[in-house]
Amino acid sequence: MSKTKVKICGIRRLEDSAILNETLPDFAGFVFAKSPRRITFQEAEILRRHLDRRIQTVGVFVNEPVESILQLVNEQVIDLIQLHGDEDDQYLKELAQQTDAKIIKAVRVSSESNLNRSYAADYLLYDAYHGNKMGGTGKTFNWEMLRDKKEDYFLAGGLNPQNIKQAIQQLHPYAVDISSGVETDGYKDRNKIIQLLSNIQEVTA
After folding, report:
1. DSSP 117
2. Residues annotated as catalytic (active site), given as ranges
3. CATH code given to domain 5-204
4. In terms of DSSP H, where are the helices of the chain?
5. CA–CA separation, 142 vs 162, rounded Å?
6. b/e per residue, 47-85, with b = 16+ CB within 10 A?
7. b/e sequence 147-167, b meaning 16+ C-beta within 10 Å
8. 158: alpha, beta or left? (left if phi > 0; alpha if psi -120 to 50)
9. Which residue ranges does the record assign to the N-(5'phosphoribosyl) anthranilate isomerase (PRAI) domain (predicted)?
């Protein structure tokens, strides 16, 4: 089985950068949307400077002006773009025409979700639907809904060290996206991240 990539989302402190430099996940997520983990563009620039260059950074946005996203890409603060709002295909195409950065479009999954809809994005990220919250809720969804998905995608929604093995063995996603599942009292927990990566290694080595 090919190794599932790992994204740790909601990096906001220099201590978080240090933990990631030690553990080396594939992606680090900077949240620029309304969230307890929200950071400013300036804070992201500082965190990027302190992150190992082997870790790709992902900017997480909700209905952000295209120009603001392009600024962060052009200044090499973020490597990938993750969209968690109501961005339509016109928005996605406009963005893609102006950057080579890969675009991830989040799809919030509920029991009534149409998972066959296509988007003008490089990857889809499947997250749990929870009211008007745009991720980071700690809630899972019915993974069986993704069983027939053949394309590469990111799996999010309530993942943690305890359920990560089952998620990967059941779905074999391209990448997993974890935020609150590796936190204690709202902050990234080094031991939980180490345990998560160890558990992933056990099922993808």
Report:
1. -
2. 9, 127
3. 3.20.20.70
4. 14-23, 41-50, 66-74, 89-97, 164-171, 190-204
5. 16
6. bbeebeeebbbbbbbbebebeebeebbeeebbbbbbbbe
7. eebeeebbbbbbbbbeebeeb
8. left
9. 6-197
Tokens of 2: 């090919």
How far, CA to CA in Å, does 32 sit from each of 17, 69, 159, 178, 201? 17, 10, 21, 16, 30
Domain locations in the chain? Answer: 5-204
Cα–Cα–Cα angle for 92, 107, 205, nearest 5°? Answer: 105
pLDDT per position in the chain (205 positions), as tens? 578 999 999 999 999 999 999 999 999 999 999 989 999 999 999 999 999 999 999 999 999 999 999 999 999 999 999 999 999 999 999 999 999 999 999 998 876 566 777 888 999 999 886 655 554 556 788 888 888 888 999 999 999 999 999 999 999 999 999 999 999 999 999 999 999 999 999 998 6
Burial class (CB in 10 A: 0-12, 13-18, 19+), 95: buried
SS3 assignment, position 156: coil
Global model pTM greater than 0.85: yes
Helix axes 14-23, 41-50, angle to 10 degrees: 40
Report CA dihedral (32, 36, 42, 48) to the nearest 10 degrees: -80
CB atoms within 10 A of CB 190: 16
